[in-house]
Amino acid sequence: MAGKEMTHSDVLVARRDTPGTQSVIHFNNAGAALMPHQVVDTVKEYTEFEAYRGGYEAAGAAKDKIDAVYRSIAGMISCSPDEIASVENATRGWDYIFYSLPFSAGDVVITSETEYGSNVTSFLQMKRSRGVLVEVIPNDPATGVLDVNSLSNAIASIGERAKLVAISHIPTSNGVVHPAEKIGSICREYDIPFLLDACQSVGQLPVDLGQIHCDALTATSRKYLRGPRGQGFLYVNKRGHFWDLEPMYLDVRSARNDESSPTGYQVRLSPTWPRHSFRTSLGRIS
Known about the structure:
Blueprint: H1 8-16, H2 37-53, H3 55-61, H4 63-77, E1 84-87, H5 90-98, E2 108-112, H6 117-130, E3 133-137, H7 148-158, E4 162-168, H8 180-190, E5 194-197, E6 216-220, E7 232-236, E8 255-257, E9 265-267
Parallel strand pairs: 2-3, 2-4, 4-5, 5-6
Antiparallel strand pairs: 1-7, 6-7, 8-9
Helix pairs in contact: 2-3, 7-8
């Protein structure tokens, strides 16, 4: 029930719909929540349907329901369905963006003191492989959240070498809520891309992309949305820096070979962008 405060009646309904509450007291929603029976039943029914119809045939028969998922996600975070791609999890969606960026030696990635460990590992890998520098913005000692004045000063000081601001909305390590709206405003002011890891916030807090001006956002199904594991989503702002970014890899759904050249290819252009690439396709995502 992202976007509204739950009442006592809402809690009772949620517990009634969640079989696991009858046998365990579960506090690990930040890792993976207990699924309600609606999710469990849907996964079971679809898997059985696929077993008797075939994978592609089942997907075709369920097209309207699958399309409705994109609309539902878009409505939840205030964006357009064609800005959403289905991915395995938030980290994989984050990787699709980060590893597609054309970093060069001396480029600077800006992040926070409480960034997610997996993302930090990617920063360090890019530092080792391409000579990218990492600028860590301190938290405000009084509030524990990222110091937006320090962020603004750092971007101004680094100048054109600043290529990305990558922040976790709610860090896994301590649960503070970084000021994503203010960070987005600063990034727009300096025209620098903003990648927001919302893995711990979507479903737990209202996330309104009309107010948070990020270029891309990643989230997962299994936490506060109480969906199945192995499912997440990537949002790419069609007016942002990443829309025309060529994906880190392509396949036959996202590109076609150029018959006039043995080594040429063209990225496919299609109105069904989330099924195919950043602008039209996200490689093999979805």
